[in-house]
Specification:
The complex is a heterodimer of chains A (about 400) and B (about 45). Chain A is about 80% helix and about 0% strand. Chain A has about 400 residues and is mainly α. Chain A folds into two domains: about 5-185, MFS general substrate transporter like domains (Growth Hormone, Chain: A, Up-down Bundle), CATH 1.20.1250.20; about 205-404, Up-down Bundle (Growth Hormone, Chain: A), CATH 1.20.1250. Chain B has helices at about 5-30, 35-40. Helix content of chain B is about 80%, strand content about 0%. Classes of the chains: A mainly alpha (about 400), B mainly alpha (about 45). Chains A and B meet through α1, α7, α12, α13 and α17 of A and α1 and α2 of B.
Amino acid sequence: MSDTRFSKPLIYMLIGSALILALSLGVRHAFGLYLVPMSHEFGWGHNVFSLAIAMQNLIWGAVQPITGAFADKYGSKIVVAVGGALYSIGLLLMAFSSTGLMLNLSVGLILGLALSATSFPVLLSAVGRAAHPEKRSLAMGIASAAGSFGQFIMLPSTLLLLQNIGWSAALIVSAILIALIIPLAWMLKAPMYVAPNASSLTGKPALSFKQILVIAKNHTPFWFLALGFLVCGFQVVFIGIHLPGYLIDHGFNATTGTIFLALVGLFNIVGTYTAGWLGGKYSKPRLLMGLYGLRGIAIIGFLALPLTTWTIYAFGVIMGLLWLSTVPLTNGIVANMFGVKYLSMLSGIVFFTHQVGSFFGGWLGGVNHDMTGNYNMVWMFSILLSLLGIVVHFFVNEEAVIHD
Amino acid sequence: MTDSLFGLKAMIALAVIGFISLAILLWFKTPQLFEYFNQAFCPH
């Protein structure tokens, strides 16, 4: 029987991936804080900054499969290092952006590209490649939890920087922090785990990019999985962006909203790690069915119960536990289906649907509020999407289509 | 598990606890976060 324990090279790779994800996703998570000071200084309407962020999300999602394919072909190390350099340059350019065009170039294009090279699909695939299949989900859960932690710590840190040194200097400090990704990328060098019956050992020829894409295209459970991830993107972004407004509508103060955001962030760390750990023990599609079901129940409970600070905090804890816990499970299923050779590219395709869901979650929440003065329609739609999440994952199985 | 790995894992565990404690402290020091998000994203 092969040794399933984490090897020393894998532990170092996990530390590297964790730090890179924490930096990359943490700095990204705080971008919203720059909207007010930059718009105020240059006399922009909120639409200028919002357009750049929307562009970033779309570019990030659209190029993710391509960046993933580069990582599969040339190695995660070099792609992450280049992504770190781009990220740093993009932040420096953002610090000196004074027009909408420059902001679209820095925040939209450069940072969108950089995020595709330094976020979940590339990093989790690197970790997943090096881990024993039995420990792959746990390893992905640990790396994902670090990304969640980055989001949790970078929000207050960035605000403190903004308040003490101004937005431009805060961006320069962020650029310096992000530059650390370049040397950290060299920690992504644990050897790929090779199964005893791997095609490379048995002499079978490896599949090409084109062949794997054709196989994925014809594998219906893969597209059900992608559809499920769209649900995740929609719900997370709708609640993340519009819940503060919902609380204001119901007469709550800033402290309640801040504690809600903090609880989501804190319990997100616990949730992603636990999901990765559970994914190594139980069926990942069944766990995702449960997860989307619990999200639906939590939303119904939140809407049905009297709205008090305690129900808001309870909702924050539950949604935090369920927030990014989909990530290690979804990526783990892709690895089980198709193996790890083209994992970054295939995870990138699934991630694209997540970004599409994110776009509509953010946008439709605003449209609903503008038209009706409330969020009722989108809350109902979120509950229906939870049902869709349960149904589609019922048809997902993680049986191997390709053995590598 | 070898002793060296145990030491490494213990150091990682301590670092994680330290960082999470620091993050919670930072959240207590920045109660204005919600106002920033509200101004940024919500047209109220």
